[in-house]
Amino acid sequence: MPVLVYTESEKGNFKKSAFEVASYASELAKSMGTEAIALSINAENPSELGAYGISRVLNAAEPRLAEFNARGTASLLRQAVSETGARVVVTSSSTDTKYATSILAGMLKAGYVNNVVSLPETTEPLVVKRTAFSNKGFAYTELKGEPAIIGVSNNAFGTLENSVESQVEAFSATFSDSDFGVKSIAVDKASDKVTIADADVVVSGGRGLKGPENWNLIEDLAEVLGAATACSKPVSDLGWRPHSEHVGQTGKPVASNLYIAIGISGAIQHLAGVNASKTKVVINTDPEAPFFKAADYGIVGDAFEVVPELIEKLKEFKAQNG
């Protein structure tokens, strides 16, 4: 029985997480002696997944899923599970996918574990390692029954290129009216920016920047690093930045390779939402700021002095190293 992997796309283009979960599913399938089959929705170039070990792709052309719909996506996944006889379903742990996969688990009465950080410890039984306690620890969870659903944490596994020829098949599903009972009225997205969910690097600012007129420090550093911009909850509450940039336990979770916090003290809710980031750097004038205890690297200094100098040094480094 194969491994089925759901690969997210947006406006026809695969998200970075799609290649990560494809890599994960391919390696998992190898260890189980089976194949990995991908399900994509409205992907313009589904054969791209062949670079990550996926030899068969089911591509659903469904206009009603051009914008994310949780129940509609779950219904499509359920029918793909039935079609393929998948023993394991692999997804990302994005906010959208967690929503859809929770519904899928209910439909299938299946075990579901998200925020998984590595390949299963064993496949007989299926035991996975996931983050727990707001990313402060790990839990080993056994998934019983079939199919088992695994949500892989962003940036936890990485991408593994393993090029194979990919066969693309059209996949159609039957929907009921209730599958689209909830509809999006409007979608507000930042344009021409790296998204927080897909970013390898996130540069985030807090009240230490003193006002929205100083946000160019965050944007300039992000531009040099090719990073997404983010902010703490007080900043979005004050209206300095849109709520779409608010990260933390009560905002968007961050699991980037590098998270730079500038002028953020590090309230427990903020730390809980960014702890999954691999490397955390904090710049703050207060040496007693809680963030320093959680950070991998810390700079005690004035952001208005430190950040411009950091930007110049990074520009010099990039110029010398191409």
> Oligomer, anyone?
single chain
Anisotropy-based shape = elongated
The amount of beta strand, in percent, is 15-25%
Which segments are poorly predicted (pLDDT under 50) over 5 or more consecutive residues? none
pLDDT averaged over residues = 93
- How many independent structural domains? 2
Give the CATH H-level superfamily of the largest domain.
HUPs
The SSE string, one letter per element, is EEEHEEHEHEEEEEEEHEHEHEHEH
What is the number of helices?
8
Largest sheet: 7 strands, parallel
CATH class wording of the largest domain: Alpha Beta
Helix content: 25-40%
Main sheet: strand order? 7-11-6-1-4-5-12
Helix and strand composition category: alpha/beta
Gyration radius (Cα, Å) is: 21 Å
Q: Kindly identify the CATH topology of the largest domain.
A: Rossmann fold
Write a structural description.
The chain has two domains: 3-180, HUPs (Rossmann fold), CATH 3.40.50.620; 201-321, Rossmann fold (3-Layer(aba) Sandwich). It has helices at residues 16-32, 70-84, 95-108, 216-225, 233-237, 268-274, 291-294, 303-321; strands at 3-7, 9-10, 13-14, 36-41, 56-60, 88-92, 111-116, 122-123, 126-132, 137-143, 148-152, 167-170, 201-205, 228-231, 258-262, 279-284, 297-300. It contains eight helices and 17 strands. With 322 residues, it is α/β, with parallel strands linked by helices.
Fill in the keyword field for this structure.
elongated, 25% strand, alpha/beta, 322 residues, single chain, Rossmann fold, 2 domains, 5-stranded parallel beta sheet, 8 helices
